[in-house]
Amino acid sequence: MTTDTHEPNKPSHFKYILLKPRSAKALSAVSIAAMWLWFLLKLHLTDEQPGVQALVGLCALIGLIGCIVMFLCTYNFVANAPASQLDERELADRNAAYFKAYQYAVILLLVGYLGTDFLARLFAFQVTPAVTQNFFLLGFMTVLITPATILAWRDEDLD
Amino acid sequence: MVANRIAVFRTERGISRKDLAALVSVNPQTIGFLERGTYSPSVELALKLAEVFRVPVEALFSLQPFPALADQLSAAQSNARGVSHDD
User: Is residue B2 exposed (0-12), middle (13-18) or buried (19+ Cβ within 10 Å)?
Assistant: First the structure.
């Protein structure tokens, strides 16, 4: 049990961006959606579509900036803090968040490794090294913020 | 889910969530989660809370929902009236 060493309002929080649950929920949803949209739009991107190119660029920008902000927020502190700085509820929430993140990562790898050929045939795209690279970036950025995202979605706005 | 009377005892004693959290070494948000019944505490935390309020742990936590205070008050008043009539 680690509750003895827990100090509420710990000063180490100042290094992180303090996000309210509502803001963190919105930011995480927008970031993950933008990253996925970027990846899916890029599958069908051609040089003759400047409008779509701009949209793809915008999605990448929103997704990457959102993921970086989520990575620097207080929920990511809870996701990565030493156990001695968290109380029992935070530890339980973190365990649940990492389990969900693990499940998401496994599904992503399964889709990437086994399902790529099938999906390529189904949605008519070629699995080029660039597509694989984009998929890895999508996976890396979204898995990186998944624990913080789940912690934010489990949190409640204080009255 | 374990039912509890933390909010009742805390209000009665005039302790803020932050102060109670400091007394039992948890985050103030955890007290909110406990009071709303969205988190069940460990045995250690339950015993610490009971110690803070100086009550037996079963007065603070129960596996069954606690009866409403209004019902308990009216039952106690009925009992008191019954006792005085008997006298």
Answer: middle
